[in-house]
Design a protein that fits this description.
alpha+beta; Multidrug-efflux Transporter Regulator, Chain: A, Domain 2; 3 strands; 10% strand; single chain; 33% helix
């Protein structure tokens, strides 16, 4: 019998942690669907860039990007376990509006 087969008394296959193996993303709190139903709306960044990715996009070195950060030309980063990532759209807009 395959591991994913259901027994008669089970309703849903279980993963290794005991949670359902298949989740409904619309049912999770904070999702756009939850916001449409009156839940909490959470802004999800489109794409997060690292310093290397910002440098590659603009054709500059990572040192230049560090200078932009120090000068306050970039928006606040998203911090995740010690790494800093920037929302791509916010970076493009901030550098477009930066004074030379």
């Amino acid at each position: 019998m395959p591991a994913t087969a259901l027994k008669k008394n089970e309703r849903m296959p279980r993963g290794s942690t005991g949670r359902p193996a298949v989740r409904n993303p619309e049912a999770q709190a904070g999702s756009p669907a939850a916001a449409a139903r009156g839940g909490t709306a959470v802004r999800i960044p489109s794409v997060l860039w690292s310093i290397k990715e910002i440098a590659a996009h603009y054709g500059v070195t990572t040192t230049t990007v560090h200078r932009w950060i120090k000068a306050g030309m970039l928006p606040e980063p998203e911090k995740d376990f010690g790494s800093r990532r920037w929302d791509r759209d916010a970076v493009i807009e901030a550098l477009r509006n930066a004074s030379p």
